[in-house]
Amino acid sequence: MINFKNDYSDIAHPNILKKLVTHQSESYTGYGLDRETIKVVSHMKSMFTKDIDIHFLTGGTITNKTVISHILKPYEAVISAETGHIFVHETGAIEHTGHKIISVATKDGKLTPEMIQSVYQSHVDEHMVKPKLVYISNSTETGLIYSKQELMLLYDTSKSLDLWLYLDGARLGVALNAKTNDLTLDEISKYTDLFYIGGTKNGALFGEALIIKNNTLKPFFRYSIKQNGGLLAKGFLTALQFDALFEDNLFNAIAISANESSRYLIEGLHSLGLELHSTPTNQQFVTLPNEWIKALENKYLFEVWTMGDMKSTIRLVTTYQTTKADIDSLIRDISLLMNKEGLA
Amino acid sequence: MINFKNDYSDIAHPNILKKLVTHQSESYTGYGLDRETIKVVSHMKSMFTKDIDIHFLTGGTITNKTVISHILKPYEAVISAETGHIFVHETGAIEHTGHKIISVATKDGKLTPEMIQSVYQSHVDEHMVKPKLVYISNSTETGLIYSKQELMLLYDTSKSLDLWLYLDGARLGVALNAKTNDLTLDEISKYTDLFYIGGTKNGALFGEALIIKNNTLKPFFRYSIKQNGGLLAKGFLTALQFDALFEDNLFNAIAISANESSRYLIEGLHSLGLELHSTPTNQQFVTLPNEWIKALENKYLFEVWTMGDMKSTIRLVTTYQTTKADIDSLIRDISLLMNKEGLA
Amino acid sequence: MINFKNDYSDIAHPNILKKLVTHQSESYTGYGLDRETIKVVSHMKSMFTKDIDIHFLTGGTITNKTVISHILKPYEAVISAETGHIFVHETGAIEHTGHKIISVATKDGKLTPEMIQSVYQSHVDEHMVKPKLVYISNSTETGLIYSKQELMLLYDTSKSLDLWLYLDGARLGVALNAKTNDLTLDEISKYTDLFYIGGTKNGALFGEALIIKNNTLKPFFRYSIKQNGGLLAKGFLTALQFDALFEDNLFNAIAISANESSRYLIEGLHSLGLELHSTPTNQQFVTLPNEWIKALENKYLFEVWTMGDMKSTIRLVTTYQTTKADIDSLIRDISLLMNKEGLA
Amino acid sequence: MINFKNDYSDIAHPNILKKLVTHQSESYTGYGLDRETIKVVSHMKSMFTKDIDIHFLTGGTITNKTVISHILKPYEAVISAETGHIFVHETGAIEHTGHKIISVATKDGKLTPEMIQSVYQSHVDEHMVKPKLVYISNSTETGLIYSKQELMLLYDTSKSLDLWLYLDGARLGVALNAKTNDLTLDEISKYTDLFYIGGTKNGALFGEALIIKNNTLKPFFRYSIKQNGGLLAKGFLTALQFDALFEDNLFNAIAISANESSRYLIEGLHSLGLELHSTPTNQQFVTLPNEWIKALENKYLFEVWTMGDMKSTIRLVTTYQTTKADIDSLIRDISLLMNKEGLA
Prior knowledge:
Four copies of one chain form a homotetramer. Chain A has helices spanning 14-22, 35-45, 60-71, 85-88, 93-96, 113-122, 148-160, 172-176, 185-190, 221-227, 236-245, 250-271, 290-296, 324-338, and strands at residues 2-3, 53-57, 76-81, 101-104, 130-137, 164-168, 194-198, 208-212, 275-277, 283-289, 300-301, 303-306, 311-317. By secondary structure, chain A is an alpha/beta fold.
């Protein structure tokens, strides 16, 4: 089976495993207080203009849950697009910590200053929750990215309304390495209060690096990590992985490779004249007749995103492991299906 | 520095890393729905007489938190020794899910049927929480183990009072492989409602295997894992590790090695005539003058367990990596300190 | 100022206060275990065909919060109209107990079987919450009522999908006494799993009577009341009030009076040819030019429901205390405003 | 039956009911935003030197729960005597909001600076909760009171350790009116961060007045009240009651009467030479043979506090309703039992 299903189906990029193997005989202090964590944190801090704190966590949901539990007072709420990962796909993890998510209908999964202002203005008194945190994802759940101008405006709006701005960077690698991107990692720390750099979907075994810029939010964060069950005994494992990711530009290289494959895939799909919702990152959405989809499922792994009676939209994800041959095979097979022939 | 600090300071047992490296080029379904998980779960199920469910989680605290959140109604409480890990060392993770822990003073960290009955009888009406879950650890937080007879009686008491019995097996390996142990893994599933087999402290990178026997507690457990932030995207990583651990008896071999070193350490400490609280597993507690401790800290890693004005008790943990030379060195250095000489 | 603002601006119906004064010299057991509570509960039980449990609570929000906390497992969620009181006006009280509310856009604030089925079908796996409780209000937040046929279908749908059906009866009095109503109190217990009879908005000082029919939901409910802070020390106070309400048909008489005033108000507003969203209960919604509203605010209390640039919709609530003279005065003043004259 | 069971078995002091009856025909704004609340709050504020906020709540548990939920961050914990009401008798209401209570064994139910320091010093890192709030009761759960010196020292200790000090005043009336008391109401606001004045156990139908002095804790408290289900629709009811309580010295008069009866009771019990744990407030504890207790239960209401095989300790509570005749009757009956005769 050829994988277009997701970007977390590999064990890890070889350099990651190599890093672990290399240090196999060493001994470390537990819970992220080891020399390796100190070294990597120091290196990563040097990548930012602002004075930031860094914490390593094991996955996206526990990062989102811990951040929101740490930041908000009980009666404070999160503003999120109704397609936001925390709103739909985390089994109520945020509500489990006691907080309401105020969802906003969007055109494309991206929040705008107007949406935030509208939510803010409609929450007027103590009979309603108090909006306090704006949650966005970059790239979004459907592969789009925020421009520098868009992020700056969101940040300005948040500050003017005394809201925190948090960016979920589960797929920050492909966002920052998109052709149309004009944001740098450092700028993201400038125009958010905190955000995380996703490792899991960018070649790591697991691991996300949370960057806290806002000084108000920094104190005692390790208490929240431990309380939420996210303080890994062998914290040095995450540090070693981020050491590998930020060595020799690996983090970007992995993302660039995924994005390049994605562009090659778009070209192929375009050449067939298909109904395509293309994005600048590693997720593409194409609408096909249901019978073609059924046929393709025998040879390719992918997710059916929205199901229709006749046609459905499927999501195709590329990764650093995707090959030209994988994509050529898929394009050829769709082409054959267009000509009412079987798969190659 | 020679490590007697804990059993989670190594990256992982070489066989674990080898397993990952071997499968490096493969591709898996996410979230623990992959073929490797199915295979390992099937193999592990064959180790039990009872029909059990198995779930893999990343660490002890998140396992405890998820189990208790899943099992209890809001007004139900946990009974734990006051030395229990959940009561002392999890930053209120259990209370964070809304549940009170009723702590019990014990002689040695082990619960008895009488203690459980006493708590049960003193909670009489709706002005108090309703005790519903008994939490024990094997080995305990200070290295002791439950005998088969003790566990059976706890289970009988729990059943007669309509309580669940949950065993925290963060260090189950060394418990089951202690010289004085008379319990089998299968028997633990018989005399508890659910328990977990610890991987983190027994050679894995991370990972605990939760075994649910009681049918009432099985449904929808994956919802609780996801909600608590513990559903690893690359769930196959934990499965691969438990595959390695239950291959060629590795799980037991790692524990046996740690226990053997511990016995060798006891002998050495005994030979010096030291005040020793010895255990059948891999944690030993010895009381030394504070100035000796200060001297030893220059060469050895260990935890000061209880601090006194003149003397303190330190904890010495052995692992599969501890060597005879490590122990010989420590014994010799203490011997030198006894003779008012410096370290070797 | 003439009150059209709400139905909880009076101290209490005179019979309620008289009841308390009459029993002033008596002494009662605390926490709702007194003889008066036993008597009233027994009397109220006789009003139902089904075997039900009754609990008295102090207000609507704490009743909703306690019910939902008691009923749901952590990963289970509530389905509610997006206008539902719990979704909008309880400051995240439900989320504070850890549960997500899945909101549904409706035409008129009423849920339909199709809406429930749609939510159910879109929540497919453990990455999403599990819908388990359907929340409706009767009368709704905007004064509408459910017919017997509608409630039966909602109940059938809920049972077929293994969902609980809970009815918020903060304004059940005016609903059951609406001209167009065809439901009885007893039938509500048949076609829901649990519901409450509102006292606060129907003449009591405070107090709601929760009726639990479903046997699964009955055990240990008093634990949940206490844990949520709703177990009144002097529980007999609520019992005495419900004794008064269900004596001499007072509960219905209060609601009938409010509804009659509301119909008289509708006639008056209709006679003026105004843009009216009329309901069969005690809340009416009329759209007026903003300058008229400003003028009326000098003499009348009411809420501006939705604000527009030129016109806004105001809510007019009638109660057993509303007089014909109050309504005549309002109608005359609006009439004067239509003729560009000042208030009378 | 003669009542020595508790101080919340009456409907209310006649003046309280009279106040409600007098205002029966009036109309008020809801949710505590009415003119009566404004008036009473203003009057009560004038009783304090410090600038304080006042909020009215319906009962002790919901006040404690709301305060703690409002004040603490998720990983912060409460320090309480192990006899503290929140630790024992609130069905885990505090833990339900996510917070651990660290209990301390005490001689007499009172906390000391040493106890607080000891808890503080033993909570050293992020693996343990962070102590942040000290909870005391005055009078305590067993009727004792704090002296000015004791309270000042607790406050100094709290401030030096950056902890909040919260005083549960469910029975503050009898405490401040005890013969041996040297604290004033105003001083309590000086030497705590917040506290509440109990109405329920001092003649009201229900109601507690929370006094927040610390400016950090004031903002948005009404959000927490609403979220916890404690915002009474008819908030003016509580205001009217506190208006009555702080008119003509009624609050103190009720407490003085209860305390005087209690002293008369102590004299009577002393005269019989009984084993007595006497207190300066309205709760007395006397140890009697179990058979006498059984006999007394036919004529008197009281609670058995601790049960022994031969003797048990009962609690006798006096209130403003207790008469000399009630006490004389009890003393005579015990005297008859001492002489092996039946009750009078």
